[in-house]
Amino acid sequence: MNEYQIKAYAKVNLGLDVVRRLPDGYHQVKMVMQSVDLCDELLLEKTESGIFLTTDSDVLPMDENNLIYKAARLMRETYGLKEGIRIHLRKRIPIAAGMAGGSTDAAAAMKGISRLFGLHVPVSRLMELGVAIGADVPYCILGGTALAEGIGEKLTPLTPMPDCFIVGAKPGISVSTKYVYEHLDAEGIGRHPDIDGMVEAIRGGKLSGILERMENVLETVTIPAWPVVGIIKDRMSGLGAEKALMSGSGPTVFGIFTEKEKAETACEQIRKENLAEQVFVTTPVSILEEPDGLVSLGD
Ligand code: ATP
Questions:
Q1: Average pLDDT over residues 112-137
Q2: How high is the mean pLDDT of the chain?
Q3: In which band, very low, low, confident or very high, does the pLDDT at 93 lie, cut at 50, 70 and 90?
Q4: Cα(276)–Cα(270) distance, rounded to whole angstroms?
Q5: Which atom of ligand 1 is nearest to the CA of 250?
Q6: What proportions of the chain, in percent to the nearest 5, are helix, strand and coil?
Q7: CB count in 10 Å sphere of residue 254
């Protein structure tokens, strides 16, 4: 095989709690992650030597700082690959949006390289390796509905969430994940989201139980700093979302709808009102990979 094409799915956080700040500056989190069908596409090709990246995005640096580059270098070094790799990225996921765009590209690059070079690396091994690139990379390798603990790398796959339609809206601002975590008073969080209850609701297939527990503690930092996020959240609810929430550290807001038509109308309306730079309708995607040997990751 000389070429391989792979999709890199975005995620939303159905729930996000920060348990505490760790001595090394990282945060212990408890999150429910959900893949959505909004995706980037990576086209991988074998070359004689080196790592070459290209993209159709005019804002993304395609140098050594790109997470795809880091993923390709990690795979080449770990598996002693002699040949080179060329990767073209078709960017569709909003950048610096709270939808794990960079992490999912890195995850797809690792999986794609394993397949292109016939390495047959088990998913659990790719996940162990991927954490060196970013805390969300192991989840992006697994995909679907999952509970993420630790710094996000301890994963428990969950049954797929009930069918629904998700409207995403990213305002024209970029929010740095680092800024949000640095400004969070982790010890001062008064009321923590009921993540355990949400996991139970997912296991029981109850959308209502999920909706009533959708909370994200990072909103307490992002919304006061960028009020447009709160405005979009309110608008999403006003347009009929069963529930609206910020994803990750933001600024993307997503609304859950049970009817496709209502979701499409809300999307159209937010677009018309110029509240957001990127607005889209998407749906949840179930597990991307069989979780072989996952147990050790959750220990
Ligand atoms: P998360 O949800 O994990 O916080 P995010 O959606 O907020 O991620 P990304 O889109 O991953 O943020 O981008 C964060 C930064 O990472 C950007 O400023 C960008 O320059 C850098 N980056 C490196 N590689 C990529 C990539 N392949 N795609 C997007 N951003 C990348």
A1: 96
A2: 94
A3: very high
A4: 7
A5: 7
A6: 35, 30, 40
A7: 28
* Rounded percentage of the chain residues whose pLDDT exceeds 70: 96
Is 90 exceeded by the pLDDT of residue 298? no
Residues 173-226 have pLDDT tens digits of 989 999 999 999 998 898 999 999 999 999 999 999 999 999 999 999 999 999
Cross-strand bridge partners of residue 11: 35
**How far is the C-alpha of 273 from the C-alpha of 121, rounded, in Å?**
47
The answer to whether 233 and 53 have CB atoms below 8 angstroms apart is no
Among the options 30, 136, 170, 243, which is catalytic?
136
Whole-number Å distance, alpha carbon 203 to ligand 1 midpoint, is 31
pLDDT reported for residue 89:
98
What residue owns the CA closest to ligand 1's atom 1? 100
Chain-centre distance for alpha carbon 79? 27
Look at residue 86 and give its three-state secondary structure: strand
- CA–CA separation, 20 vs 133, rounded Å? 22
Is 11 annotated as catalytic?
yes
Helix (H) or strand (E) holding 30: strand 27-47
Q: Is the dihedral of CA 254, 257, 261, 265 positive or negative?
A: negative
> Is the model's pTM score more than 0.85?
yes
Ligand 1 contacts (CB < 6 A) are 60-61, 65-68, 95-103, 105, 136, 177, 248-249
CB 47 within 8 A of CB 2: no
For residue 119, give both structure tokens.
Answer: 């390495």
Helix (H), strand (E) at residue 278: strand 278-282
Specify the ligand 1 atom closest to the Cα of 177: 4
